[in-house]
Fold this protein.
Amino acid sequence: MSRYVGIDESNHGRENEVYVLLGSNNFEDIQEKSYKNKRRIWSDVDDAERLKELENLIKDRNLKYITIDWGIRNLLHDREIQTIILLEAIRLFRPESIFFDGIIDSKIIKQVKRKKRGIYEIHSGAKFDTKYPIVHAADTLANRIYREVTNRKASMDDGIRDFLREHLVAPDWGKYAKKIKN
């Protein structure tokens, strides 16, 4: 369980989208800061250094991520995907507060609160990844994980593969699709 969850995605609206749900109990992770979203070039970094960076980003945090392939993207609307991502965050972390990079329609928030009762707040807004440490880290992780899972190299480093397997979540898309109507 984590008190706070930051959510961000990489490659939004296209094939192989990655949503990162990053949990934390550290109050500092939800205090506003200012970030300039400059990342190192990932392809210039060797496997051991990439794995170390991934592990550092989740230090004292709880990482889960969801990949959305083209088939799911064609079956579900953005609003349905956002709803499922929020429901999964609540199921996995039971947080007090969720910080979602991007604007979520108030109807989605109402629907989520109807389906998952509890005491939690959902905050959403543009550029949350440049304001909140938990969302900034989720943004960086989403970018890094996206690059790893779409890497066209012949083989993936075993340490990175194990890291990715450990944190992957696969929602029951069919179950959610039946319950959630656009």
